Structure formats: C-alpha cells, structure tokens
Amino acid sequence: MLVPPPLSLYIHIPWCVQKCPYCDFNSHAQKGDIPQQAYITALLEDLDTDIRQYGLASDSRPLHSIFIGGGTPSLIAPEYIKQLLDGVRERIPFRDDIEITMEANPGTIEAARFEQYRVAGVTRISIGVQSFQQTKLVRLGRIHGESEAVNAAKLAHEIGLNSFNLDLMHGLPDQSIDDALSDLKQAIELAPPHLSWYQLTIEPNTLFYSKPPTLPDDDDLWDIFEQGHQMLVEAGYQQYEISGYSKPDFQCQHNLNYWRFGDYLGIGCGAHGKLSFADGRIVRTTKVKHPRGYLNMLKPYLDSETNVDMKDRPFEFFINRFRLLEPCPKVQFTLRTALNLDIIQEPIKRCLEQGYIEETEEHWIVTEKGKLFLNDVLEQFELI
Q1: SS3 category, 165
Q2: Exposed, middle or buried: residue 109 (CB in 10 Å: 0-12, 13-18, 19+)?
C-alpha cells in the first residue's frame, strides 16, 4: 500500500528581464508589460482544475510548503503575490508552520519589495546572487551588480523573514580557485541562514551549450569544492544536500520534501507535479509551457500526465533520496513506492560492496565515496 506523503505546491512565473546564457529553465524574456492579473487568475484556475482532478481540497493533506520559482517571480508586484497566496489558501488548507519561498533577483527594484512580499505571506526569499564579481556577473548575463547583491542580503536580514537563501555558483567561465573562494567568503560574511552553492553545468538548449565557455578543469573544481566545503563547515553551515548548506534548523523544507520523494502540485507555465494515491498510483504532470498557450482560455492547462511505472520507481526514489545526506529510512522506500524491499536487494548489495552506502537495520546512509560517485550509485537502480 502506498501512503501519500506530505503535499507541496510549486508555482512557476515564466518571465525574466533577459535570458541568462546558462539557463535551461522555462523562462521568457519580458517584452512589454507582464499580464499580471491575467496570469494570477490563470494560476488559480489551474489549481482549481488540479484540485477537482485529483481530489486534493482536504484537511487531511494540508500544504506543507510553497515555492514560487521562475523566471523571476520578483517581477510580479506584491499585491498580485498576495492575491495569489490568499487564493491558494482559500482552496487548500495550509499547515500552521508552512514555508513559502519566493525566488528574487537582488536588483534594486525587486529588493525594495522584500518587505511587501513578507506582508503578502512569503516567509522565505531565495536571492539569485550567483557571483559577487562584476566581470563574472556580466559573463553570466546577470543584470545586478555586486553592491545590489550585498544590499539585498542585508535587507533580507532586516525585514523579519523566517529565513532566506543565497544562490551562488562556482566553476564559472575563466574562474580561478581564488575567485571562487572569494565569492564564497563574501557570501558567508553576509550570514544567510541557507546557502545553495553549486557548480555551473552546461545544459542543452542554452547559449553556453552552443558557444561553450572555458571552464575550470577537474582538478581546480575539486580544489574549489574541497576548500569551499571546509570554509562552510568552519562557518557553522551543515551540508544536508549535495548543493545545500544551512545553519542548524534552516534547511529548505520545500526541497526536503522533493528529495524525500514527497508530493507536489505544479501550476504555471511548464510546471511539473508529482502526486501519489492510496490505490498505488504515482502520477507526474506537466503544464503548457509557453505563456501564450497557457493564457489561452480555450486550451487546458495540463500538457501531459503520466503514470510512474513500478519498474521505474526504485530509480526515481533514489535519484531524489540519495541527494540528501541524512540516513534514508528503509520503510520510507516501501511507503513512497508501494514496492517491497526484495525488489532492490541486488542493487543495494552492489552499492554496499562498492562502498557507496552503508546500512543499519533501519537505514541506508550514503558514504563519502557514494557522494563522489553518485551517478554510479544511481546507475545500480537502473539495472533492476
């Protein structure tokens, strides 16, 4: 039997000022005014459709967290964010301790709205800094400068949010080890409760993919990670996920629900969702990608709906669960996939033999070696 896990909501805002050359997300450069009211109306109608389709308006499954991502959600005025969150609350109950995160650029206009977003209901802001060095920001297509990034972090401290995150990348074009560690040192000095520190990867369908920049070599990337990780630990941050570091008790609850193979509704252009049902089904959904199609009232919001096959569930479970460094309860595999442990006996045995994981009677734990060779770990579950 499958026990439905906690339920989250992802809301996608597709517009940004300009498309960054490394970005493969569903984002669209702003041309003229954003149809804010029309989009908020569509988001709530999209949610209404999902609630009817999947029977979700119930006190038994209140929302655990909300994440408003993009694009650049902070291009949407605070009064529309309030209208959106109020509308969601009217449709699905919130947990008393719900975490509501919104991504934001550190640009002057967006940062000036932080307090208004908090009043609108946002409890946590994720600030897309990426680098504090102007030459790197220009190369990444970012429209803010170093001082704006610093001021945005200071403002986030001042306005009484429950938490905030700084997004920081390393392994940037022509970046030296000292450059990368200098960025990280500056981020640590700003004392965010949470830091997402991750390596730039070149993705298909991006400008960097068609015109690849010169990136640091593997030896430099390893030195950046090793020295940076030590800096973070010494500053009191705990690595709880492959690229997630936080002060104690400030982990991102929304991301934790993803990685624990929890459920989430996805509304907005190109948003993805995953829903589990007591009858054993696991359904993945995607919404219409382009704003013009999404806002066309003659079309449904749903673009695709697929059932996750039993044979694919072990890989899907572990590709999420083994991103986390916390022990994985064995019972969680059964509760979240509706599969017996017998089906993964061989891949677990191979992982143990290779030293990728350790196990107790109740848990699996990814080892230091397993973290380094995570793709090899996950491949074992494709061989079932």
Answers
A1: strand
A2: exposed
Q: Which domains does the chain have, with CATH numbers?
A: 7-257 (3.20.20.70), 326-383 (no CATH)
pLDDT in tens, 44-88: 999 999 999 998 866 678 999 999 999 999 999 999 999 999 999
| pLDDT attached to residue 76 | 96
**Bridge partners, 101 (sequence order):** 67, 124
pLDDT tens-digit profile of 7-35? 999 999 999 888 788 777 888 888 889 99
Q: How far apart are CA 157 and CA 162, in angstroms?
A: 9
Beta strands (DSSP E) in 242-330 are 244-246, 263-268, 272-276, 282-287, 302-307, 328-329
Rounded Cα–Cα distance for residues 351 and 337 (Å): 20
Instruction: Extract the tokens encoding 363.
Output: 């848990």
Q: What is the pLDDT of residues 97-123, one digit of tens each?
A: 999 999 998 886 677 899 999 999 999
Task: Taking the CA atoms of 40, 284, 164 and 220 in sequence, report the sign of the dihedral they define.
Answer: negative
Reported as type and span, the H/E element at residue 121 is none
Exposure letters 68-105 (e unless 16+ CB within 10 A, then b): bbbbbbbbbbbebbbbbbebbeeebebeeebbbbbbbb
Does residue 348 contact residue 359 with C-beta atoms inside 8 Å? yes
Q: How many helices (H) and strands (E) does the chain have?
A: 16, 17
